[in-house]
Design brief:
14% helix; 3 helices
Length: 160
């Protein structure tokens, strides 16, 4: 019996994930990519990770970047997330941004922002795992997270 990749992907979709946008600076302009693979790795030192498909048109930029900014998306970011998830859609034009000390901008109204320097890059099948050391972070006190579940966007009720 052959391993059914489509069924495997569908099963993985049963695990709800948060959604984030990672930004990096290029010679011409900053670019972004939507990810749902963001997670913490370590508190001491402060490390986070995210993964990028090795066939992404943004692969070289992000795997070579010395640093990047991760913006955790709220429910109002569905359009931004959808736009930056598509191949060829990486410009940040028309998106409200904030400058960061690191360089790559953050989404102005993100639930949380992590400015990271590259710590490590590891191969992982058809993806590459990027581990970042968090240099600075900030968070908003309010807002509900954008969630991805079974191939669709959703939301969680904000915790009281």
């Amino acid at each position: 019996m052959a391993f059914d990749l489509r069924a495997f992907r569908t099963a993985l979709g049963c695990f709800p994930t948060g959604v984030a946008v990672v930004t990096a600076t290029t010679e011409s302009a900053p670019m972004g990519i939507t990810v749902n693979s963001f997670t913490s790795v370590s508190l001491d030192p402060p490390l986070v990770l995210w993964c990028i498909d090795r066939h992404s048109d943004r692969y070289a930029v992000f795997t070579r970047a010395k640093g990047y900014t991760i913006s955790v998306l709220g429910t109002g970011h569905e359009d931004v997330s959808s736009r930056l998830a598509r191949q060829g859609e990486h410009r940040l034009d028309g998106i409200a941004l904030l400058k960061t000390q690191l360089g790559p901008p953050a989404l102005a109204d993100a639930l949380a922002v992590f400015e990271c320097e590259r710590e490590a890059v590891h191969e992982g099948g058809d993806h590459t795992i990027l581990i970042g050391r968090v240099l600075r972070f900030r968070r908003h006190e309010a807002g509900a997270p954008l969630v991805f579940f079974r191939g669709k966007y959703g939301a969680l009720a904000e915790a009281r």
